[in-house]
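Final report, closing paragraph on structural work. Over the funding period we assembled a curated collection of sequence-structure pairs, and we close with a single example.
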Amino acid sequence: MDFVKGQLVRSKAGRDKTRTLAVLEVEGEMLLLADGNLRKVGDPKRKKVKHVAPTTTVLANELLKSDQQLSDAIAAYDAACAN
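Its predicted structure, as stored:
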């Protein structure tokens, strides 16, 4: 699957397993991911494509500019998926 900027993914491996993250950039087989809380937009996590599960949700670029907006968008997504 091809990943796009703003797409939400779930981590399948590592200490952030099961966390929802947003794709900030795609670099071949590596993704730059952030959630606005533990991983800030200014210091994204590098993770291999095989270690994440894609979702169909893609956030607008405006939501990727600040940690607070990104965190709120991910919290809303997680709340909607929990029900």
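Residues 36 and 67 are 4 Å apart (CA to CA). Strands lie at 7-11, 20-27, 30-34, 45-48, 52-58. We thank the funder for supporting this effort.
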